[in-house]
Amino acid sequence: MADTCVSKYCNAGWVEVLSHMSPYGYANFGVAFGLGLSVVGAAWGIWLTGSSLVGAAVKAPRIRSKNLISVIFCEATAIYGVIMAIILTNKIKTPEKATFYLDNDWDWNGFYYAGYGMFSAGLSVGLTNIASGVSVGIAGSSCAIADAQDSSLFVKILIVEIFASALGIFGIIVGIIQSNACTFPIAALQ
């Protein structure tokens, strides 16, 4: 390491990078992670369910239409991410005075609290929707294979799939609770 950066624009490490990032950046990353990870969870679940559905439908073509409910449950996890992204995006407000520097009496604690809170809300929704999408996909895959063998098993396994889908609902509820107190200040403290 002969060429160490000595300029004032160099970062000492990741701690400095993350601690100097704008709260707006954290809030927008929360929106991105909530939406992006929810879509990944939905895609993963659809991949798991769809591949088993197509394979089992070769043996029993009657299962094709009624087992599409599993794909719909997987798609719901992406919709939960979209809902949370809309909620979080509506909470991101710019200051009243758009200047390069904020006032000295600016509510810095509220500013950072809002950014970190929205990041954690988006991340928790995204991660629970990955878990929900995968679990719904596995349950849907089992449902398609079991239904191809014995049609009386469809409703029994569908109930398990509904419980797996509830993970996504729990995630969005937790995300809404986390983001309730997150409001960006728009003016200096009075």
What does the model show?
- The protein is an all-alpha fold and 190 residues long.
- The protein has a single domain (24-90, 108-179), classed as Four Helix Bundle (Hemerythrin (Met), subunit A).
- It is 74% helix and 0% strand.
- It is built from six helices and no strands.
- Helix 2 runs antiparallel to helix 4 and helix 4 packs parallel to helix 6.
- The mean pLDDT is 87.
- It comes from Trieres chinensis (Marine centric diatom).
- Keywords: Hydrogen ion transport, Ion transport, Membrane, Transmembrane, Transmembrane helix, Transport.
- This is V-ATPase proteolipid subunit C-like domain-containing protein.
Write the layout of secondary structure elements.
Blueprint: H1 14-19, H2 23-59, H3 63-66, H4 68-91, H5 108-149, H6 154-180
Transmembrane segments: 26-47, 68-90, 110-132, 153-177
InterPro entries: ATPase_proteolipid_c-like_dom, ATPase_proteolipid_csu, F/V-ATP_Csub_sf
Membrane topology: Multi-pass membrane protein
